[in-house]
Design goal:
Structural class: mainly alpha
Radius of gyration: 41 Å
Largest sheet: 5 strands, parallel
Shape: elongated
Distance between the termini: 71 Å
Number of strands: 7
Number of helices: 48
Length: 948
C-alpha cells in the first residue's frame, strides 16, 4: 500500500494515511519502516513523535520535523528563526480550536511555505507517531498543510491510538473527512507468529512453539519479539539445545519488563487498572476495579478493553504469572496491602465466596480484623476440601491467635490435619494441647481419632493407650464406623489389636452398618480367620472409601489384605490408581504411604529391581523424620530388594538411615528387622542375623502366633542355623512353623518347605522342593520361585540327574532375569561397576555363565553351583521366540504336557499329575516337538501358556 501511496505522491497527488492500532501493536515500527523505505526511494522524510510529557511544549513536533535527517541546514536555521517564544505564546495544548490563532498566522503560513518548497524539490513524507499527544501549535500547522497538499508531492502519515484519544476530536474530524487511507493494526495471528518465529530463529520450528508464544502474548508484537529473544538467549538448561520446541520456551524477567513497557506507553490510568487486575486475579470485573482505583465503571470498561485488545489480558486476567508479578512489583508494599484489604472488603460486601475474600486477606499480610475470622475459617475448610493444603494452613495460622479458647481447640485440630497431609513432623507443636484435650473430654469425634492416629504415626504407644482409655465409653467410639477405622489403623501400625478394641465396637459381622461390618471382617485377616471373606471385604472397602485423612490407614490395610490373599494384580491396580489420586491432590503423605505399599507389593511379586526403585521413590517423598515409625515399610523393602539383587553395599546404605526406637514395636519394625537379618545373613554375619530373627520372635510374643505368616521368623532363623551347621535345630524351627498349617498362607508354606528341604536328608528333598515350587507358582512370588527352582536344580545335580538339573537351572535363570529387570524393562545394572568399552556381551559374568547379580541372587552359602553346561536361556541370552500361530497350534492337552516337560518332569510324573497314560504323554510330546520344530525338552518354551 505504501509503495502505491509514494508513487501517487511523486506524481503530484498529495496523500494522507491514518494508522490506528492498540497498545504496542507495531505502529511505531511501521512508521520507521516506511521512513526507511521512503528515504531509500529518494524522498525527504520529516518525522516527529508525540509524547504525553511534551504535549504542553508548543511547536514541539515542528521542531522535530526540521531536525530530521536530510533537511538542508539553511532551512533549519530559517525555521528556528520563525519559532520564537512569542510566535505561539497563546496557543494551548489544543483545546479543540480549529482555527489558526491570529498571532500565529504569519508563522504558520511561512512554515507551510517551507514545507511546500521542500516538496517541490523532491517528494516529501511527513510522519507523526502518537498524534493524540501533539501540541496545539503543531496541530495547527498540520491542519494548515493538510488543506494545501492536495496537488503537492506530500505524503502525510499519522498514527493514533485505537480507540482514539478523545482529547483531539476536531483534529481527527478534520483529518478523516478528507480523502485518506485508513490502516488498522491488530495483534499478530497465529500464522504471523509462526512465520516470525521461523524467520528469526532460522530453523524449522515445532508448531506448538508458535502456538505457545501466541497464547502467552495474544499476538502483541512487542511481547512476541521479547519471547523470541528470550528463547534465543536461553542456556542449555532452559532448552537451548531444543530451539524449535515449545517445552524449551523461557518466560522470565524480560517478559515482565516488556509488559510494563507496553503499559507505560499509555496514560497512568492504564497502569492503575492493570495493577487492580493483578491484585484481584480471577475475581476482577470493571465495577470492582473502578471502586478500588476510584474511577467510573465505564472508564474501567474502556481501559480493560484496551488491555484485552493489546493481548495483555484474556478473560480479565494477565496471560502469564510473570506479567502479573511485574505489575504488582510497581506497587510499594503499603500500596499493595491497602489494595488487597480494599479488595477483600468489597468482595465481602458483595457476598463473594469465603475463599476468594480470604485470598485477598492473606495477600494483604496485615493484622487480622474481627470480621475476617469467620471468613478465614470457612475458607480453610473449603481449601482443605479442594486439597489446597498450603492455603488452608495459612488461613488457620492467621486465625489462631485471634480466637477465644473455646474455638482455639477446633482450629488447632484443623491446622494439624492440614499440616499432616504434607509434613507430618510439623504437627508436633499442636499435639500436646490436643492430647490434653482428649484426656479432659474436650476433644471428641473425628478430631480425637485423628490425634490418636498421629500418636500412632509417632510411635507414642503409651499416649495411644491413654487416649483410647479416655475415649472408652464416649460417643466417639460408640460410632461403629469410627471405631472400625481406628481399629484398622491400630492394626496397620501394630499388626494386631492386643485387646485394645475388645469392648469398643461390634465385632466382625455384627455391626448393622455395612461399611463397619466389612471393616471388622477385614480386621480378621490379621488372625488369618475367614481369609476369603476378608479379601472380599477389602475390595468392598476400597470401592466405597474415598481417599482422605481418616481413611489412609484403612485403605493401606485393605491393600495388604489383598496381598495376603494373593490378589496381587488387584492390589497393584488399586494402589496405582490411589497413588495417582494422591499425587493429583497434592497430599504428599498419602502418596508416600501408598508408594511404600506399592513397593512392598512389587517385592512380593519378586520384581526386586522395580521394588527397589519404588521404595526409593517413596523415601524421596518424605524426609526420614517425617516418616515416623512407618519408615520401616519403605526401608524394609529397599534393603530386602537390594540384598536379593546382591547389591549389598546399596542395602547397607539403606540400613544407615536413623530410625526411631519406637518403630521396633510396630509391624514395620518387624519387617525392618527381618530385612536387616537377611542382609546380615547374605554378608556372612550369621550371629547378627540370628539376633535380628530372634528379636522378631520376641517382639511377636504378645501378638497372635498366626501372625508369623507376615513375618516368618522361624524359617528365617532356621536358615541362619543351617549356616552354622545345625540342621536339627533348623528342622525343629521349620516344623513349628508348619504346624500352623490351618492359618498359614501358601507363600510362607513354600518358604518353610524350601528351608526344611535344605535341612533334610537328600532322599526327602525332591518331594519337599516340588511342593514348595507348587506353592510359589500359586502365590506369584517369582524371586522365591527362582530360589526354590535353583535349590531343586542343585538337588538333582547331587543325585546325578544332570539333564533335569539343567532344565530347572534354565527355568530358574529365566525367572531371575524377570526379577532383576528394571521398570523400563532393561536389565539391572551392576552397582559401582560398568563393563569396559569393547568387552564382549558375557564380560564380567561368572564361570557358570550368569551375570554377577544373578549369581549373587541365587547364591547359597555352603553349596556348589551347577557346573554342568548351562543352556543359553540360563546365561540370560534371548532365544528366538515361536510365533503366536505356532503356539496356538497346540491343543490344551498338548500345552499342559509340554509345560510340565519343560519344567523337567519325567513322562511318568506327567502321567501321574495329569491322570493320563505314559503312552499318551509320549504321543503329545511327539506332536509338540513336530509343531514347534524342536528335538528335545531343553528347547521347549518354559511356559507355553504364559509365552503365548
Amino acid at each position: 500500500m505504501f509503495k502505491q501511496l509514494l508513487k501517487e505522491t511523486a506524481e503530484g497527488r498529495g496523500q494522507l494515511a491514518l494508522v490506528q492500532g492498540g497498545l504496542a501493536c507495531g505502529k511505531t515500527e511501521l512508521l520507521h519502516g516506511l521512513a526507511e523505505y521512503a528515504g531509500a526511494s529518494g524522498a525527504l522524510v520529516l518525522s516527529a513523535a508525540g509524547s504525553r510529557a511534551e504535549s504542553d511544549l508548543q511547536a514541539g513536533l515542528i521542531d522535530q520535523f526540521f531536525r530530521s535527517e536530510g533537511v538542508p541546514a539553511d532551512v533549519t536555521e530559517r525555521v528556528e528563526g520563525l519559532l520564537s517564544p512569542e510566535a505561539f505564546s497563546n496557543a494551548s495544548a489544543y483545546p479543540g480550536a480549529h482555527c489558526v490563532q491570529p498571532q500565529s498566522v504569519r508563522v504558520v503560513h511561512e512554515l507551510c511555505g517551507v514545507i511546500l518548497e521542500l516538496a517541490r524539490l523532491r517528494p516529501l513524507v511527513i510522519t507523526v507517531d502518537d498524534v493524540q499527544f501533539a501540541d496545539g501549535a503543531s496541530i495547527q500547522l498540520l491542519l494548515y498543510v493538510l488543506r494545501r497538499m492536495r496537488s503537492a508531492r506530500i505524503l502525510m502519515v499519522v498514527t493514533e491510538w485505537d480507540p482514539p484519544e478523545p482529547a483531539v476530536p476536531v483534529f481527527r474530524a478534520e483529518l478523516t473527512r478528507r480523502p485518506h487511507r485508513e490502516i488498522r493494526l491488530g495483534p499478530l495471528s497465529r500464522e504471523d507468529v509462526g512465520k516470525l518465529v521461523t524467520d528469526v530463529l532460522g530453523v524449522s520450528v515445532d508448531a506448538d512453539l508458535a502456538d505457545t508464544i501466541h497464547d502467552l502474548t495474544g499476538g502483541n508484537p512487542m511481547l512476541v519479539h521479547t519471547l523470541i529473544k528470550e528463547h534465543q538467549r536461553a542456556d542449555p538448561a532452559h532448552g537451548d539445545d531444543r530451539p524449535g520446541e515449545a517445552d524449551a520456551l523461557v518466560v522470565g524477567f524480560p517478559f515482565g519488563q516488556a509488559t510494563l513497557a507496553c503499559l507505560q506507553r499509555w496514560g497512568p490510568e492504564l497502569l492503575e487498572v492493570a495493577r487492580a487486575v493483578a491484585v484481584l486475579g480471577d475475581q476482577g470485573d470493571s465495577e470492582l476495579i473502578g471502586k478500588i482505583i476510584e474511577i467510573r465503571g465505564d472508564d474501567a470498561d474502556r481501559l480493560l478493553h484496551i488491555l484485552t485488545s493489546a493481548g495483555l489480558l484474556i478473560d480479565g486476567r494477565f496471560r502469564h504469572v510473570v506479567a502479573e508479578r511485574a505489575v504488582l512489583g510497581t506497587l510499594l508494599r503499603e500500596e499493595r496491602s491497602a489494595m488487597h484489604v480494599g479488595a477483600a472488603k468489597l468482595l465481602y460486601q458483595r457476598g463473594a465466596e469465603a475463599i476468594g475474600v480470604a485470598r485477598q486477606i492473606i495477600a494483604a499480610d496485615q493484622p487480622i480484623e474481627p470480621w475476617m475470622v469467620p471468613v478465614l475459617r470457612a475458607a480453610a475448610e473449603q481449601a482443605l476440601g479442594d486439597d489446597d493444603i498450603a492455603f488452608a494452613e495459612r488461613c488457620l495460622a492467621a486465625v489462631l491467635p485471634m480466637v477465644a479458647d473455646d474455638d482455639r481447640l477446633a482450629i488447632t485440630a484443623a491446622l494439624a490435619r492440614a499440616v499432616w497431609r504434607v509434613n507430618p513432623s510439623a504437627t508436633a507443636p499442636y499435639l500436646p494441647s490436643l492430647q490434653a484435650a482428649i484426656q479432659t473430654g474436650a476433644l471428641q469425634g473425628r478430631d480425637a481419632v485423628m490425634v490418636v492416629r498421629y500418636m500412632m504415626w509417632n510411635g507414642d504407644r503409651e499416649g495411644v493407650a491413654q487416649a483410647l482409655s479416655a475415649l472408652r465409653g464416649t460417643a466417639t467410639l460408640a460410632d461403629a464406623r469410627v471405631a472400625a477405622e481406628l481399629r484398622l489403623a491400630y492394626q496397620w501400625y501394630y499388626g494386631s489389636e492386643r485387646g485394645r478394641f475388645s469392648d469398643m465396637a461390634p465385632r466382625a459381622g455384627t455391626s448393622p452398618e455395612p461399611w463397619s461390618r466389612a471393616a471388622n471382617r477385614l480386621a480378621a485377616v490379621w488372625n488369618h480367620k475367614e481369609d476369603d471373606i476378608a479379601t472380599e471385604s477389602a475390595e468392598q472397602i476400597l470401592q466405597s472409601s474415598q481417599l482422605g485423612d481418616a481413611t489412609i490407614e484403612v485403605i493401606a490395610s485393605a491393600l495388604l489384605v489383598l496381598v495376603a490373599g494373593h490378589k496381587l494384580d488387584r492390589a497393584t491396580s488399586w494402589c496405582d490408581r490411589l497413588i495417582d489420586e494422591a499425587e493429583r491432590r497434592g497430599a504428599v503423605t498419602w502418596q508416600a504411604v501408598l508408594s511404600a505399599v506399592r513397593a512392598a507389593i512389587t517385592l512380593r511379586r519378586g520384581r526386586v529391581a522395580v521394588a527397589a526403585e519404588q521404595a526409593e521413590q517413596a523415601l524421596r517423598l518424605l524426609s526420614p523424620q517425617n516418616w515416623g515409625v512407618l519408615i520401616g515399610y519403605p526401608l524394609s523393602t529397599l534393603v530386602s530388594a537390594f540384598t536379593l539383587m546382591g547389591r549389598y553395599e546399596d542395602a547397607a546404605c539403606g540400613l544407615r538411615y536413623i530410625v526411631p526406637e519406637e518403630m521396633f514395636d510396630t509391624l514395620s519394625g518387624l519387617l525392618y528387622l527381618r530385612a536387616r537379618g537377611h542382609h546380615h545373613l547374605a554378608t556372612d554375619r550369621v550371629l547378627a542375623a540370628i539376633s535380628d530373627f530372634q528379636r522378631c520372635g520376641t517382639l511377636m510374643g504378645d501378638r497372635s502366633p498366626d501372625f508369623a505368616s507376615t513375618v516368618p521368623w522361624r524359617s528365617d532363623l532356621a536358615e541362619a542355623n543351617l549356616r552354622l551347621g545345625r540342621p536339627a535345630v533348623a528342622r525343629d524351627l521349620v516344623k513349628q512353623q508348619l504346624e500352623q498349617a490351618k492359618s498359614m498362607d501358601d507363600r510362607t508354606r513354600g518358604i518353610s518347605l524350601r528351608v526344611l528341604a535344605a535341612a533334610s536328608p537328600l532322599a526327602e528333598r525332591p518331594g519337599l522342593l516340588r511342593r514348595a515350587v507348587e506353592c510359589m507358582e500359586t502365590v506369584g512370588d517369582r524371586m522365591e520361585l527362582a530360589r526354590t527352582l535353583e535349590e531343586l536344580s542343585q538337588m538333582h545335580q547331587e543325585l546325578g540327574e544332570l539333564d533335569r538339573a539343567r532344565l530347572l537351572a534354565r527355568r530358574a535363570a529365566q525367572e531371575l532375569k524377570a526379577c532383576l529387570a528394571r521398570a523400563d524393562g532393561g536389565p539391572q545394572p551392576e552397582a559401582g561397576r560398568e563393563p569396559e568399552a569393547g568387552s564382549p556381551p558375557d564380560a564380567g559374568r561368572g564361570h557358570e555363565g550368569r551375570r554377577p547379580a544373578e549369581a549373587r541372587a541365587l547364591a547359597r552359602p555352603g553349596r556348589q553351583p551347577v557346573t554342568t553346561r548351562i543352556p543359553a536361556a540360563a546365561r540370560g541370552d534371548i532365544r528366538p521366540r515361536r510365533t503366536d500361530a505356532e503356539l496356538t497350534a497346540l491343543s490344551d492337552a498338548q500345552r499342559r504336557v509340554a509345560d510340565l516337560a519343560a519344567l523337567g518332569h519325567t513322562n511318568q510324573e506327567i502321567s501321574r499329575r495329569l491322570y493320563i497314560t505314559v503312552s499318551t504323554v509320549e504321543q503329545h510330546l511327539t506332536r509338540v516337538f513336530r509343531k514347534l520344530g524342536v528335538t528335545n525338552r531343553e528347547d521347549l518354551p518354559l511356559s507355553l501358556s504364559e509365552v503365548s
